[in-house]
Amino acid sequence: MRRILPVVGATLALLGALPPAQAAPPAQAAPPAQAAPRAQAIPPLPAGPGATVAQTGEVAAMAGGVAAVAGRREPDRGDDEGGTRTLRKALEEAAKAHIDAQARLDASKKRQAALVLRLKRAEADIAALTARVGVVAGEAYRRGRISGPMLLLAARDRLEFLERTTGLETIAVLDDARLRDLRTARAEARRARTAIDDEVREQARQVDIQARRRTDAERALAAAGGGGPGGFVDADSPAAEPAPRSAGGGWPDESCTVADPTTRGCVTPRTLHAMRQARSDGFRRFVSCYRPGGGGEHPRGRACDFAAASDGFEDVNARGGDREYGDRLAAYLVDNADSLGVLYVIWYRQIWMPGNGWRSYSGRGSPSATHTNHVHVSLY
After folding, report:
1. Per-domain residue ranges for the chain?
2. Residues with Cβ < 8 Å from 105, sequence gap 6 or more?
3. At 251, is the pLDDT very low, low, confident or very high (cuts 50, 70, 90)?
4. Residue 99 near residue 354 (C-beta atoms within 8 A)
5. SS3 for the chain, per residue?
6. How far is CA 153 from CA 49, 110, 302, in A?
7. For position 312, what pLDDT does the model report?
8. Does the pLDDT value for residue 9 go beyond 50?
9. Is Signal among the key words of this record (predicted)?
């Protein structure tokens, strides 16, 4: 105790000599993340009622909606695509599952076609070998089978004896080969039939998956107030050059790895291919793909917005020639969906998905949110 008291006293004296403690300064907030720059060479937004958002991309037109969504505690109320996070996720999962099932279905049909050819060849071999074996058996029945020892005893000299010995060995080898080939052909036919049955079951399973995913998408749209038939079609849509597929016929996973020519961001190779195909087929009005904020596929470089107006993204519903342009573009993307890897297309309060076709899409808000001033396409 005597040793502790001097130490405590010295400590207190030292503390008394220190300046009074100050409250810790508040932690500095992390600097806000800088959004990726928008489309290059963007002119300032014009002021006044009915001002045109020319050559700016949809980012500026939706900036207020994006900021509002970012500040909400309930992220499922809405997004800058006029839907909700839950709806978008449900539609994306349903579309992906349908496309994957279709790829597996197509691959199974190709394997089945190859197996049918194998079965036909095996059956032809069986028929030919059975005929050969039948000829030998028929001759033996009609004339009576002459045993090997009898043929050898009937030889007139040593040379004839050797010739007959060699002949008997050759006949034995040929008969054995025919029977072996026949057994092999029958086994191949059995394997082909079994494999064909397996492929038929696989195809039925994939068709069932597609049916269930169609129902999932319909329910998600109905819950959001959408659904019902609709659509945009164009029998004269140009045929786009197909995007590369994987060896199994599906779409390979891609990341945002290539420069987006419409912004300073990035897109996937498949998105870039789809945008270039659309432009080469005559749809050359302003387009914006990558967007750092908001939800959906834009931040992942897997979506593009095509302006309906010739001057860019206008904050009005497309009419006249602009509406016709959007109709033709939406139909073009749908007609080439299998070639380009399209997940869904949204235009003028309607959405197209593989397996479901066109359905009403109850986006609410500005023309950007209702997709009445631009065509949206999301890629796999």
Report:
1. 106-222, 228-379
2. 203, 206, 207, 210
3. very high
4. yes
5. CCCHHHHHHHHHHHHHHCCCCCCCCCCCCCCCCCCCCCCCCCCCCCCCCCCEEECCCHHHHCHHHHHHHHHCCCCCCCCCCCCCHHHHHHHHHHHHHHHHHHHHHHHHHHHHHHHHHHHHHHHHHHHHHHHHHHHHHHHHHHHCCCCHHHHHHCCCCHHHHHHHHHHHHHHHHHHHHHHHHHHHHHHHHHHHHHHHHHHHHHHHHHHHHHHHHHHHHHHHHHHCCCEEECCCCCCCCCCCCCCCCCCCCCCCCCCCCEECCCCCCEECHHHHHHHHHHHHCCCCCCEECCCCCCCCCHHHCCEEEEECECCEEECCCCCHHHHHHHHHHHHHHHHCHHHHCEEEEEECCEEEECCCEEEECCCCCCHHHHCCCEEEEEEC
6. 118, 60, 87
7. 93
8. no
9. yes
Contact of 308 with 325, CB cutoff 8 Å = yes
pLDDT digits (tens, 9 = 90+) for 51-101: 333 333 333 333 333 333 333 334 344 555 666 777 778 778 888 888 888
Q: Which residue has the tokens 């008997």?
A: 168
Token code pair at residue 373? 């001033």
Whole-model pTM? Answer: 0.58
CA distance 99 to 355: 9
- Report CA torsion sign: 268, 270, 271, 273: positive
At 118-131, the pLDDT tens digits run 888 888 888 887 77
Q: How confident is the model at residue 25 (pLDDT cuts 50, 70, 90)?
A: very low
4 pLDDT above the threshold of 80? no
Mean pLDDT over residues 26-54, rounded? Answer: 33
Task: Output 142 or 134, whichever has higher pLDDT.
Answer: 134
- Contact between 274 and 379 under an 8 Å Cβ cutoff? The reply is yes
Average pLDDT over the chain reads 73
Token code pair at residue 330: 């939406």
Burial class (CB in 10 A: 0-12, 13-18, 19+), 133: middle
Give the whole-angstrom CA distance, residue 275 versus residue 67. 28
Q: In this predicted model, which residue has the larger pLDDT, 175 or 366?
A: 366
**Average confidence (pLDDT) over 299-313:** 95
